[in-house]
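Design request, tokens follow.
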């Protein structure tokens, strides 16, 4: 009985790799006959696992069923799921905190001691201090994600930062979690241009619209496009500076959402930044800690940079100059 149970678990683990297996391949992996494989497949079906026979190869595939049967996870998968559930319990998707904690409790109860120790060590050594973003209803995320996957036009009521609500019709491209918020990057059908929408401000209308042929992502990369949108174009005060090192070297000094880097040559790159005030721009630019040249910006920024330079110079008035 123990040998049969162990073999069933091994068979289930093979089927969960999301590929088609011939009866001969499974028999070889398990060290049994094809007849034994067929009997074990029947046992899994009796336990609620939807094992489908594949056409033309006399093989098997694990499908989706009406109920969720137990899953087999390897060590790394189990730790990843536990960490993900812990993050989800305090995340930005409304309504899943409690269910995430319930699932985490069930998982930790059955984790082997070595894995439970790894999860607890990671949890004890990390601290989450970022402020939570606006919560999004799970149904909203699912509706948007399904429209992206199916390439179907999406209609929704969108509430702008000013409070004004408009009806939008878009071709959804990608749903992105970026800097504590969920964003939809989509082609706006009426405005004939790419737009970015905060998911917590939209209310989908059903049914979805007709299918469409996906467009190439904006600027060739959705992440680059979104970073540029959030870091500069949405702010009242904007600037472009030339950094005197390569884009590869500058990238570690520019945190996500701060600005968009564009390579110029092997020794320089452009950085676009945006902020509420020129003074905030000065802080952001100098915080990068790289020599720079101002390429464009409002006159107030020039004045603010000069004031900052004078302030730094004056702070050293009582200190002797370093020996040459």
């Amino acid at each position: 009985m123990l040998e049969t149970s162990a073999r069933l678990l091994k068979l289930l683990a093979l089927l969960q790799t999301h590929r088609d297996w011939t009866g001969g391949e499974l028999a070889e992996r398990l060290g049994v006959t094809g007849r034994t494989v067929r009997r074990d497949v029947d046992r899994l079906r009796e336990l609620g696992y939807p094992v489908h026979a594949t056409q033309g190869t006399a093989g098997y595939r694990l499908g989706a069923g009406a109920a969720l049967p137990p899953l087999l996870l390897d060590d790394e998968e189990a730790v990843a799921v536990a960490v993900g559930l812990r993050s989800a319990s305090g995340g930005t998707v409304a309504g899943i905190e409690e269910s995430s904690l319930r699932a985490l409790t069930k998982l930790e109860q059955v984790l082997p001691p070595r894995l439970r120790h790894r999860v607890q060590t990671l949890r004890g050594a990390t601290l989450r201090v970022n402020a939570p973003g606006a919560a999004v209803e799970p149904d909203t995320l699912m509706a948007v994600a399904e429209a992206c996957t199916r390439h179907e036009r999406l209609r929704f009521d969108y509430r702008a930062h000013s409070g004004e609500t408009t009806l939008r019709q878009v071709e959804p491209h990608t749903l992105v979690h970026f800097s504590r918020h969920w964003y939809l990057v989509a082609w706006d059908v009426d405005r004939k241009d790419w737009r970015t929408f905060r998911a917590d401000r939209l209310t989908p209308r059903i049914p979805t619209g007709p299918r469409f042929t996906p467009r190439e992502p904006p600027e060739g990369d959705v992440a680059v496009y979104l970073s540029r949108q959030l870091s500069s174009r949405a702010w009242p005060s904007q600037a472009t500076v030339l950094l005197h090192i390569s884009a590869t070297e500058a990238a570690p000094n520019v945190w996500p959402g701060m600005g968009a880097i564009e390579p110029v040559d092997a020794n320089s790159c452009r950085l676009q930044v945006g902020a509420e005030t020129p003074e905030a721009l000065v802080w952001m630019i100098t915080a990068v800690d790289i020599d720079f040249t101002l390429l464009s910006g409002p006159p107030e920024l020039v004045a603010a940079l000069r004031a900052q330079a004078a302030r730094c110079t004056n702070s050293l008035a009582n200190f002797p100059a370093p020996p040459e």
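Comment from the thread starter after seeing the answer: thanks! The first strand starts at residue 21 and ends at 22.
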